[in-house]
């Protein structure tokens, strides 16, 4: 693959949706029974399925079912979002549902890596800033939330907040190197060299 | 300043630093299973890549396998489709697949160690967060997502950030009826479910050193439940003795050379840690969870915490947990009736787990109305247990003796809770909906505690059965 084909992501904007709660785990984001698939294609339909739908398929009262948040692309969350399993099905279902970026207090580590690998930006902000942003979005769900990764700034209405993003994730998104396969493959010679020096792959002759 | 095992193994596997600042790390062992790999193989085909070193990847099938009838085709057509995809992908790429026919199939984190594929000093990755299990051998082992599986298949490397390191020392001797599961639940309870983000854990101290390899695997397995992606225990004689004679472990002179290298990779006494935490093992009692994440745990003799005693961050989740579980602060968990008892999962389905549970079950009967399942972690564990007659002990007591797989830990197979059933479970996650019913309820505990609860028909203290 040609690394130049990868999209550079430095700015994302869209209407928001607040999803309250700490430690929202990957089983909640996409229940395990929907992992029975060999492609990610249909996962958007099952995002947060068990909190959105009753067993008979009828809708429950849930933020994601509210008409005012239809078409939202920026999800605002609290602490340790995406904890639990390594299933990429979780960010895949967010992406396929239409989410383009998440703003939260903090994110679980594997979830965060998976999002980077998919070019789905995550930024973190202080607890108070998240609360204010959530309240704002509840009152004004059509307002465009703008995330500027270069400036590490989120603006909405008349407000702006400073956000954080791990430097390596930011660089990968802004420079368009988040799909790392091509870059990793470009050091094939060095890969072979490291392999040839590992005792356990060389009969422990070291 | 001395180096930790993390420092040494990281440096040894570092290919280069990437322009974005991450390190490109060579992965010595890649494990795959049917749930998170098919999409990665699809990406490999679409991007016209190939599997670079198929001999460094091993496959098994575990998440979707039924535990009652494993004849082909599997009754669930989606499960069969996933199994066929894995067969085709491993065949086409030349990857070794431990399927049912090999009699070496089982949960990926059970078979790697028991076959001796997992060894000290390795970097190990798998599309499964409980890959941290393999850290018990003194390897750097962690879970990855599907796009990273693609990277790994195509390049045998990953783009990673080196974690910080926290030393967790468990001093003293454990009491009777206190197991590795109780120790790791106590650690997560103390540090919180997000306390480990950005860290690799190094477990040490008398209690950890006294553990056998299977107990160490239980500790490292649940590292991810505390937010840390990987955790390890420095290898020692317990590790080397376990590995000698294992199928894929080095033999003879090569084994001797291996041991001398394994001894050289351990953390040095003057190594620097970003953080250290100490626990007194002698004060840990049998633990049970009361909520919807593994950090919400207490000793079985305690009463449920008062919401006011928790900090504001924990209070909201605790309130949600009490609503979901139907529990009230101030009340004990002991005595609460259970509907289901599950012994199994990559945390606690090895032969020593089954032996401890069988000691409790022997000569007793599962309480009326309780559905009790024992699911061995692998075909080899199943065979070993049957050779010792553990299957008979369980069956005579009224437990169902099943075939190997992940089963009711995450309910991707037919083993599921129904409605609001309450399950005493030796698995690793008590998330809402985890065991197959959105309203189902999970209480995590050691396998011996699960057996005791099954007999009593309610949550109980295993120490009364010993």
Describe what this molecule looks like in 3D:
The longest helix of chain A is centred in the middle third of the chain and has 13 residues, at 127-139. Chain A has one domain (3-179): Aconitase, domain 4, CATH 3.20.19. Chain A is 31% helix and 16% strand. The model of chain A has no long low-confidence stretch (mean pLDDT 95). With 206 residues, chain A is an alpha/beta fold. Chain B folds into 3 domains: 5-160, Aconitase, domain 3 (2-Layer Sandwich); 164-235 and 259-283, Aconitase, Domain 2 (3-Layer(aba) Sandwich); 287-465, 2-Layer Sandwich (Aconitase, domain 3). Chain B is built from 15 helices and 19 strands. Chain B has a 5-stranded parallel sheet, covered by helices on one side. In chain B, strands 17-16-15-18-19 form a 5-stranded parallel sheet, with helices on one face. A 4-stranded parallel sheet of chain B has the order 11-10-9-12. In chain B, strand 9 (164-171), helix 6 (180-191) and strand 10 (199-204) form a beta-alpha-beta unit. Chain B starts with a helix and ends in a 10-residue tail after the last helix. At the A-B interface, helix 3, helix 4, helix 6, helix 7 and helix 8 of A face strand 1, helix 2, helix 3, helix 5 and strand 8 of B.
Protein structure class of chain A:
alpha/beta
Average pLDDT of chain A, to the nearest integer?
Answer: 95
Q: Which quaternary structure do these chains form?
A: heterodimer
Fraction of residues of chain A in helices? Answer: 25-40%
Q: Low-confidence spans of chain A: pLDDT under 50, at least 5 residues?
A: none
Mean pLDDT reading of chain B: 97
The CATH fourth-level homologous superfamily of the largest domain in chain B: Aconitase, domain 3
The side-by-side strand order for the widest beta sheet of chain B comes to 5-4-3-6-7
The N- to C-terminal Cα distance of chain A equals 36 Å
CATH-derived topology of chain A: Aconitase, domain 4
- How many runs of DSSP E, i.e. beta strands of chain A? 7
Helix content of chain B: 25-40%
Task: Tell me the number of structural domains of chain A.
Answer: 1
Sheet-strand content of chain A, in percent, reads 15-25%
Q: Look up the CATH topology of the largest domain in chain B.
A: Aconitase, domain 3
Please, how many helices of chain A?
8
Name the CATH class of chain A.
Alpha Beta
